[in-house]
Amino acid sequence: AKPLLRSDYQPLDFKIVNTDLDFYFDTEGDFRATVKSTLDFERQNPQASSFSLDGQDLELLSLKVNGQDWTDYELELLPGEGKFQTLHIDVSKLENLDKFTVQIENTLEVANNKLLSGIYKAGEHICSQCESKSFRLITYYFDRPDNLSLFTVKITANKEKYPYLLSNGNPVEKGEAANGYHYAVWHDPFPKPCYLFALVAGDFDVISDEFTTKSGRKVDLQIFGEIGKAEQLRFAMSSLKRSMKWDEERFGLEYDLDLFMIVAVSFFNMGAMENKGLNIFNESALVGDKDTATDARLKRIDKVVGHEYFHNWTGDRITCRDWFQLTLKEGLTVFRDQEFTSDTFDRTIERIESVKVMQNFQFDEDRGPTSHPIRPEKVVSQDNFYTVTVYDKGSEVIRMIHTLLGEENFQKGMRLYVERHDGQAVTCDDFVAAMADASGVNLDKFKLWYSQSGTPHVTVEKKFDSQNQILSVHFSQITHPTNDQAEKQALVIPLKTVFLNREGEQVTGLKTLDGELVPELIVLENDSLSLEIATPCDLAVVTNLDFSAPVILHQEYDLQERAFIAEHVPNEYARYQAVQDLNYEIYKAYLSGVQVYAAQALGLYLGVYRSLLEKALDNPALYAHLLSFSSPSVIAARFEKDLDPLALENIYQQVQIALNRAHGHRAIELLDKLPATGAYEFNVTQAGLRDLRKTLLTLATVNGEHADKVVELYTNADNFTDRINVLGVNLTNKLGLDELEQEFLTRYHDETLVLDAYQSLKAQLAPDLEAIKQQFTLHTFDAHNPNRVRSILQPLARLNFAVMYAQDGSGIKFIAQQALQADKFNPQLSSFLVALLLNFFKLSARYQQQILAELKELSAQPLSNNMQEKVDKALE
Ligand code: B3K
Ligand code: ZN
């Protein structure tokens, strides 16, 4: 397919201002549904006399304009997969072209729609997913985000099978229809683009609650889930209420309808969808309680519920003009969900988790074949741009604006943005303009972050002149060419920086030689920046604190200095980063092949590790991170080239053994000292203790000893986190506690999401490909369900280096074949799977050749646009 360019944007000649949809689901067998749409048009361009509507997989039954049968149309079938259609309608014969009504009747695929887009069956339920370009699978329309319309929706279906009939906005009417059918009518009073349309039909358990907004609007809250699992929706309800409150308090943004609904479905390509008033969620991001979800998944539920709710303003009330602007709503809403999680739980931990996504995933995307700016220039399949770059780097860009402006000015900017653009479809430029205008801070140069791809490398060099008592610090930046863009310029890079003395204390009030105060936020705006600081003694420079800019930092430290910072820096985020850096150095020392150096590095690390163990009780959640030696997959993310995954795996195992020898007994001592968690509660302290307990148990049992402690934790567990942690320790350290695994499988036989977590663990630790294939035989497995497929294949590719990168190339081939298979029915799934191979560019020659050979074979097959775009970029 031909790529679309950002620069090609053209405003609409006509707009649809009212959309009336009347659905009839004749739900016997392999049904297609029928929809009658009544669309009120208004002309925008006085010269225009025709327009084109998008469609896909539709059968047109009739077309009328102003109530008359209309023959001035042409239905064009576009070449390629997926039966893309364009319906050209000529209205030049009308007397009044400024306002007219078009009525269309068409059928649409439902029961055989395996794309999980448009309207499809998710198990027994019927549901919709329209973002970004799937409304065209429902009816002919301007399937683009800048057409804002009011929607009225009537749904008719079998009453017994589909007692709940839901759509956006407010319920207007319901009643009985012939043959045991019934209907419901919904009206959404807010104009919206069609990608926010939603429809759900089915039988559910519902939990209800209410929330009163700060201006006194009483809002009914309803969450719909699988029959028999209502209890597993309670946590999400508490998240929703807290999200609503938080958005009022922190952003002053209030909910605007009398009803807010969330529905959990079992087949879904993404996490969730922010349809106006009717969010639809992948059940994995909504359903769970202490007995079926880990602390980490509950935290994710909290975050995603927040994220989708926050879209009500940043996405729904103010939407994107075109899909190139996706980060306008996604970067901003990720920033908002990160702030929500920080304010609710622990800011440092949340920051560390967001930074991990950047360092472990986004940096690779930025240097790989699919590199793109947060606002892309060129797109074949929009589905391929729901990326960590658009979302997470997008959020980092918003965070830098927040850092440069400060909270108060940032909120002023938000208020101006809402005041100017409520009810509009706008661009990233509009957002930045509101921020700049409200704060008076010039962001012209900063805006390069929207159009430049690639991760800047920032180098910090320092020199201390003891004679003249001058510390010179030199910052410089460079962004290397990326696959999509050869020329790079200097970016505006805000660097939070502190200086430490020899005792590890922060030195404040430092001045440059001209007497200027050295600010805590150093903004690098050009290729380089030099500071001459007056100080009687040498200082350590700790910069990019809190990851104030999404850059890769280079600083010449020797191992001792790194160890010193890891132990002494008075800032927990900086400590985390220093420990990460130290872990990386250990790997590098081993990889150097110089044994003395490796031994020295290890010795130093063991020393730091000991002091970390001593401090672990101060902040269990954080120290659980600090005490986990970086996994091979995390280290792999730091490589730019010549990566040998199997070598990393090998080093990891050696260091685990050394850690166990040196500190296994200390881990046991500390385990015995850990305060009892008490009855399960979901909070930072308890979750931190559970995490730390797992880290310590893993360390203590590396050589197979102390299995009794593992059994004890399982036996006493009153929650799922401890149970799955025990299973993890058992499998990691091969403790052979098969009876625990059996107990687990019996206990959770009917909990599909729990078994996903189990399968992930098995896939991560499988000894060979046979053991992976074994996972496909579990009773819950279904190759058409993305949750099932991803929970096996993602950990295989990302975490199980031994099987994925097996000498004979079988792991790589397996992923390629799975992708090809999925491509036959779900291009979003296959595109996700093929992306697991796109790290080839950084692997050493053997792996690289194996992957490229597989990709070439794939490219010889007929592929979906989604997959083709990625394969083409890889082979470019
Ligand atoms: N906006 C949706 C993503 C839909 C993706 C469709 N391919 C989820 C979110 O970011 O909130
Ligand atoms: Zn979003």
Automatic annotation (TrEMBL):
Peptidase M1 alanyl aminopeptidase C-terminal domain location is 560-876
**Where's the Peptidase M1 alanyl aminopeptidase Ig-like fold domain?**
454-555
Question: Can you name one GO molecular function term for this protein?
Answer: zinc ion binding
EC number(s) stated in the UniProt entry for this protein: 3.4.11.2
Q: Where is the Aminopeptidase N-like N-terminal domain?
A: 28-196
Q: Which SUPFAM superfamilies match?
A: Leukotriene A4 hydrolase N-terminal domain, Metalloproteases ('zincins'), catalytic domain
This protein's cofactor list reads: Zn(2+)
**What are the protein's UniProt keywords?**
Aminopeptidase, Hydrolase, Metal-binding, Metalloprotease, Protease, Zinc
- Name recorded for this polypeptide: Aminopeptidase N
**Which species is this UniProt entry from?**
Psittacicella hinzii
